[in-house]
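Fold it.
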Amino acid sequence: MATAPAPPQPTAEPRRTGPGRAHWLRVTRETADDLATDAVEREQAGKAPFDEVSRLREAGLLTLLIPAELGGGGADWPTAYAAVREIAAADGAIAQLLGSHTFLSWSARFLGEPALAARIDLRSAAEQWCWGGGLARQEPALALTPTAGGQVLDGRQSYVTGVLVADRIAVRAVRADSAEPVAVLVDPAAPGVRVDNDAETFGQRLAAGGSVEFDAVPVAADDILGSLSTEEDALSPRAALISPVGRLLSVQLRLGMAEGVLAEARDYSRAGAPWHPAWPVGSPHDPHVLSAFGELTVLVRAASALADQALAAVCAGLALGDDLTFEEHADIAVLVAMAEAAAARAAQDSTARALDIVGARSTPARLGLDRFWRNARTHTLYEPVAHRLRDVGDYFLNGAHPAFVLPL
């Protein structure tokens, strides 16, 4: 079983110039191997991942999706998804950081005018920004208030991925004069911004999560990435693709963690001490161990196949652009929801049962096998699978379109 097999590249994705898919898959694999060498030590230290972000930056993964003509990698979404999955097999927290960055840094392309998105891409590539933040609905909402000199942002966002290491933060705010929700880009070094390292989660500790407060932070016109309104006249099917596109990053993250823990459990089982001729419980020849590995392999591969279908649907929707209909968008959103549910089960079962497979030998802290379970469980708690299953059931039974929900 490969550690993180790359999803197939659909022909519907538009061509771009750049080093090419093979180059980026090789670079990602090298970066993942580098992260894997000290993953346990870094996770146990729990320091803000400035060094890890530098590794992603040096590999070119922070500008992967930016068009080559604007200084980026010129890659496509299938390549970006494969990168998140490969990194997740080595370090789930850094993969969450990369996935969040990828989603947020591309959000202007869904929500805003092309000229604004190009300006942001150009500067992001030139300055090698790492993006953090979150566009999901939070209560109380951040307030964007008009003033004599422009607009200011106020409020507190309780959990923001990547905020401890971000060069830019993208957040959801509500216009005080019209109640319209919008995506806003903020420099965390700006006056009035305060970042707190207060997440203290038991998993995904290196995702650089924390809270951020805004106190009369000035917001320029170009800092507003676009509207997040769910009204049909404001949110077209093309723009609404931002939700399944972002949620599919979560799918790849979960699959990568599942594949990573199974690969480590397999390698550790093979490299264990010599076994008694009777093959006691926990050996590579124990029928229970073989059955468990077989069951988990089938579970992960099945989720992977569903993720590939969702990927093909997302790329087909991106290729349709403004010709995408609401019905077609609903089909895509439901397929991604199915993939989310399957990937959540694969990640939770694999990361928990891999410890049972290895047995008591999995308990030494130096092995760090528990980090996979803690990372997967933390991520799935923030993104509950029950919500996705409800969407799938309501669509199947009643034909109801899934609600527009952005990933945390």
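The radius of gyration is 21 Å.
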